[in-house]
Amino acid sequence: MTQTNTQPLVQDFMNHLIKGDRRACSKLATMYLESGHAVMDLYENIFKSALYEVGRLWETNKISVATEHMATAITEGILNELYADISFSKPLQKKVVVACVEHEKHQVGVKMVADVFEMNGWESYFLGTGVPTTELIRFMHETKPDVLAISLSVFFNYASFLEMLFQIREAFPDLLILIGGQAFSRMKQQQIDRFDHVLYIPDLYALDQLIKSWNNQTA
Fold first, then answer.
1. In whole angstroms, what is the distance from residue 149 CA to residue 176 CA?
2. pLDDT-derived band of residue 87, with 50, 70 and 90 as boundaries?
3. Residue 60: C-alpha distances to residues 56, 63, 75 (Å)
4. How far apart are alpha carbons 50 and 45 in whole angstroms?
5. Which of 83, 115, 143 is the last residue of a domain?
6. What is the spatial distance between Cα 150 and Cα 110, in angstroms, rounded to a whole number?
7. What share of the chain is helix, strand, coil (3-state, %, to 5)?
8. pLDDT band of 182, cuts 50, 70, 90
9. DSSP state for residue 125 in the 8-state scheme
10. Residue 124 lies in a domain
11. What pTM value is reported for the model?
């Protein structure tokens, strides 16, 4: 993890996001990587920090939903630009399904989660937003993943998360489920601990360490 003060860059990146300046955002991301930082540093320290602040501004009515969606779309576009340059580990016989809570409309964070799994040699099935839980379960029966990763950005959709978790548990009682996203950062750990076989992952660094520990166990 790179220990540098990224706040000025986060602020610049966020300002360009809100203005809709895709070129400036892409240039900042490229400069950050060229200065010696890893892709995961860019994801966690710049993209995530900036989008969390954008989300806060939207929730407090400081920016419109249109501006918030634009900022998200720009960031996702840069993720797609960078994908070809990511360094991936040797493929393993491990699979993860990565999806959003039903009705959730934000998929950038969980897309970064899919990339981290792939960086570590896992095969990731990135489903993004808009997949009904019944179809998610059907897809998991077909693909038989080792892990399911779920993202929730807006706490308003927490009830949908609970219903989704209930349905998945009926179909896959012992499947390990990873959860993360801005909405969960507001919860206390004991609220999460009541779920069986569910792990809250606070950031991408923690996710990377967890995956590496799993890989070492099977090496």
1. 9
2. confident
3. 6, 8, 21
4. 8
5. 83
6. 7
7. 60, 10, 30
8. confident
9. E
10. yes
11. 0.91
User: What range defines the domain where residue 132 resides?
Assistant: 95-218
| Cβ–Cβ < 8 Å for 70, 109 | no
User: Tokens 């995530």 map to which residue?
Assistant: 48
At a CB cut-off of 8 Å and minimum separation 6, what does 190 contact? none
| 121 CB neighbour count, 10 Å cutoff | 16
Tokens, residue 84:
């070809």
Assess if residue 36 is contained within a domain: yes
The gap between the terminal CA atoms of the chain, to the nearest Å, is 24
Cα–Cα distance for residue pair 99/129, rounded to 1 Å: 7
**Same domain, residue pair 147 and 199:** yes
Look at residue 56 and tell me if it is in a domain. yes
Residues 6+ apart with CB under 8 A from 47: 13, 29, 75, 78, 79, 108, 112
Whole-angstrom CA distances from 97 to 30, 157, 162, 182, 218 are 29, 20, 18, 20, 20
Q: How many CB atoms lie within 10 A of CB 170?
A: 9
Three-state DSSP at 99 gives: strand
Q: How far is it, in rounded angstroms, from Cα 71 to Cα 188?
A: 29
Among 157, 82, 73, smallest CA distance to 116 is for 82
Q: How many residues are there in the chain?
A: 219
